[in-house]
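Exercise 7.
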Amino acid sequence: MLELLTSLGPKYVVPHVMVGLPNDDPSLAIKEASSFHPYMINILVMIPTKGTASERYEMPKVEKVMEMVRLSSTLNRTSLGCMRPFPLKKELDARAMEYVDRIANPHPSLRDKMEIYDACCSLPEEFLDEFRAKS
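Solution. The predicted structure, written as tokens, is:
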């Protein structure tokens, strides 16, 4: 499907790769997605959610997420998506700033260090100005 999308589909294709699923290697997904030269790759982080099947999963460690962020950033433009466990956000967002092109809903402590947009992290660059947040 990704091959069809990147060759025949819309101009902007942004695969989302989940980090933290059990028995999954997101580095393989990042490498495979990057081989199709998408507009950007979006990194998401699994959130164990009480009352769901995922509540038994362990929250990924920041270092594991950063390993995937660094890998993705060497292969493609990368964004950090909105799905991130809040307990990881402050450290993860601060560390990821060096590697990603954008962060969805950044931790409040970082908002004065970046441009803020009221838009999805996958929005094409050419449309960002229309969504710049008013200060």
